[in-house]
Amino acid sequence: MKFFSRWQPLVDEDAHTALVFGFMRHAPVKAMLEPWLTNLLGRHVTVDEPLAPHDFWPNYRSLMEGRTRTEPELVFAADDGRPLLIVVEVKPSFGQHRVEQIVREAVDTAGARRSARLAVIMVGADLARPAETSGWQGELVTALRRHGHGHVEAELRYSSWALLGQRLRSSAVEAPEWRRYADDVVHHLRLKGLLGYNGGPMFDDLEGGLTVVNAVELFNRTVKAARELLLAVHAQSPFRAAGYEPFSGSSHRMVRDGTSGTLTQAPESFEASMLLSTYRKPPWPDGAGVYIGVWLTPGEGAEAHLQAGAFRAAVQEDLVWSYASAEDADRPADDDLARVDRTLLEWVSVTDYTEWVYADQPWRGGRGEDDVEWALNALGAGSRAWDG
After folding, report:
1. Which terminus of the chain has a lower count of CB atoms within 10 Å, N or C?
2. Is the pLDDT of residue 207 over 90?
């Protein structure tokens, strides 16, 4: 079976399934599988038998037009007071689930297993259930009814890899004899950036002192940690409720300076000093926005700094370069920016074309939840300049 194979790079959904749910197959169900399901479904769930080889990648005849076979990652029996069939569909990255596949797996599993109740669980890298899946429950019920399974009770749930990682760590505490196995699985998930944000980058494990290889690894970890921070902020309900959109383009981006490629440009144009993600709302004035940034070279101590707040740009190209070259000022000239609460956003930087009002704090490891809350508060304080 696939999950008996030696560890392979996590390049596809089968490898992710083998890694995490292969652990679930062997670990005590009361330490891993049952608590995960109970947390996810919001009610006590039991599993009488450990996962078996035939639970993985079952192959069913498809009832859907244009398809002949269906193969979910995992299908197994559970109980929440009544028999419940669990269907798991795994995706290794962000936004990869498709309603057509989810509906097909539910319909074909119901037809093959003759179950009266289904819980379909989507697993992916998004830290919260993707907004585009909000209407899929209704499509699932409609498809079951259309294919003669209207009597089937079906629910659709979402689990992040980060939630599975939390459960893995907890299982190692509850069943210490499984710690080495759990730690290995968590290590692989961490390497893929699937465990969510836990503060600034950690460097203590690097050996050999300051080498080129270690220096590059330090920089890469820093960029990855900043990405994880932004993903964690974007997944929070206050961020979604606020209606933030990318300041430019159709998707959220993290940009940095120092990306020049022309050899005749100035040496400093190759140096990275800032990471920046910018946002706006449709009603705001042109050039108005809020942002989260990481100052990589603050000049004091060994820590980068987190910065977040509001800005206005008369020229909106190359904002990260403008931000990196901004100089400190006592107060903003822009009347709207001058209205922000300076007890929260106490710092001001300006260029000829931009103004930035922001909060600043050192970026340290192990402060995941605190950093996310801090960033959300700074975005909220900055938004009040434009919300009126």
Report:
1. C
2. no
Radius of gyration of the chain (CA): 24
> What are the structure tokens assigned to 93, written together?
């990255």
Which tokens in the block code for residue 74? Answer: 């995992």
> Cβ neighbours of residue 224 under 8 Å, at least 6 residues apart?
193, 201
Tell which phi-psi region holds residue 35, choosing left (phi > 0), alpha (psi between -120 and 50) or beta. alpha
Which residue is listed with tokens 């990260």? 320
Neighbouring-strand partners of residue 56: 74
pLDDT band at residue 10 under the 50/70/90 scheme: low
By the 8 A CB rule, do 21 and 74 touch?
yes
Q: Is residue 260 within 8 Å of 272, Cβ to Cβ? A: no
Cα pseudo-dihedral 213, 323, 278, 195, rounded to 10: 20
SS3 70: strand
0.70 exceeded by pTM: yes
Strand-pairing partners, residue 328, are 349
Exposed / middle / buried, residue 168 (Cβ in 10 Å: 0-12, 13-18, 19+): buried
